Amino acid sequence: MTSNPLVSIVITNYNYDKFLDRAIDSALNQTYQNIEVIVVDDGSQDKSRKIITSYGNKIIPILKENGGQPSCYNEGFLGSQGEIICFLDSDDIFLPTKVAELVRVFESFAEVTWCFHSIQLITEKGELLDVVVTPNYISQQCDFRGRIKMGKIPPALPPSSGLSFRRSLLEKILPMPTTKLISASDYYIKFMAVALGKGFTLSENLAHQCIHDNNAATLRKDRQHIKAREYLLTGKWIKQEFPQFKKFANKLFAVGIMLDNNAKNNSYENHEIVQDYLKNISIYEKININTIIQYFLIIGGIKSILKNVFNY
Known about the structure:
The structure is a single chain. Helix content is 44%, strand content 20%. By secondary structure, the protein is an alpha/beta fold. It has two domains: 7-210, Spore Coat Polysaccharide Biosynthesis Protein SpsA, Chain A, CATH 3.90.550; 221-310. Strands 1, 2, 3, 4, 5, 6, 7, 8, 9 and 10 form a ten-stranded mixed sheet that branches. α2 (48-54) links the parallel β2 (35-42) and β3 (60-64). α8 (224-241) packs parallel to α10. The protein starts with 6 loop residues before the first strand and ends with a helix.
């Protein structure tokens, strides 16, 4: 990495005009100066594009037709030049020292290819909520590659606004498959990042995630079928693009089936994804997925008994 590396902040937006300028300002007002701010608008129908235009040459706009957040990652990365890439959802905020902290980590540890940090949740008015994403994070180097290879899910990873990567790593991951079936999902990028390289977790809360009525999934119990779809599609895409991680892909797919069953939403789209996946895998893999599901059911049953009977 060169000294004083260029950092690309890729903001993804869809119909979030009431939050967008706040997100852009937080990106522009970083204490670390060598940055470029790229705003990818995914076919918004509100005042988002007017807001984007008002920033002039302070930002790099990418205006595209609606295609879902994965397509925004692809386009934003394609339009970036930075050695370090970080993503920011347009309803979230970066704290002023975030980029400086990321650069410090990447410059200090040559083998680190990704850096994730915890996130503080806030209300629309900016009030802090008593919830922190990944509160048990410790500032340390991490290597989950062996865990992924064995088909095990890594410890909790933060949402989009807590993710950053070396360009060399994202070049192996993007472009990623896309679909309009999910409006927002970062699972593919962060899971493949930890599968392909060593990383670093920061305990500091360097971003605020806004909780509001239109959140895709965070704290939304009424959208479990959408969360299930994220797992189903992520498993499908990983198996398709990185067959060496098929054990992990099948684990994610099994989790997706479990979540979809628990949602009791009878989602036609989810059913189609499941049927398409199952008809293209071996009998052994089907047995493995069923075994994983049964295991989760047993563990879930045991936890329920402990909670209800013993108040454990």
